[in-house]
Amino acid sequence: MLTLAFDTATEVATSALVDDREVLGERVSHARTLLEDVDALLRQAGAHPRDVEALAVGIGPGSFTGVRIGLAAARGLALALDLPGAGVSTLAALAEGAPGATPVIDARRHEVFALVGGEPAVLPPGELEVEEGATYVGDGARRYRATLEERGAVVPPDDDERHVPRARFHAALARDFGPVREIEPLYLRVPDAEKNVR
Length: 198
Fold this sequence. Notes:
By secondary structure, the chain is an alpha/beta fold. It contains 7 helices and 10 strands. It has a 6-stranded mixed beta sheet, with helices on both faces. Helix 2 (64-81) links the parallel strand 4 and strand 5. 44% of the residues are buried.
């Protein structure tokens, strides 16, 4: 099955075209160039948009705006091409790309998104339970490297690719394809704009 996968929840956007388990192309850029990246992936693979059979989209947690961009793009593509889709947690994709590591995404406001007891949560980095000698990956792990390392965590170098939620892992994790309009974002708190209105 030819799957187009992408995630725009973090500071980088990733996209990939995957045929069953074979990665035909992959790009890392920014959310604003997502559709250009999709076009480039299709051209690189010699594929037509109508050849795509399914979408796998990152649902967060991450930037509220970033998650919305990804879901809006998925809904537009699904509508235009009559495609089914599946939502994949950005934390799950990070973990898939770094077996044994704990994914940590920068949540801004001096907080991180992480898995706590297997469930996604938002908390200050100093409250994240750290296992000495364990590896932590993601833009949150990079940003709060000092806080994590002083408590015994291992954080790979900033340029290590395990810090990026690569879309190939979204394609690998995607299950239960259905109507893209029914894919829900994984928001763990209210958006900044809504919070500031209160």
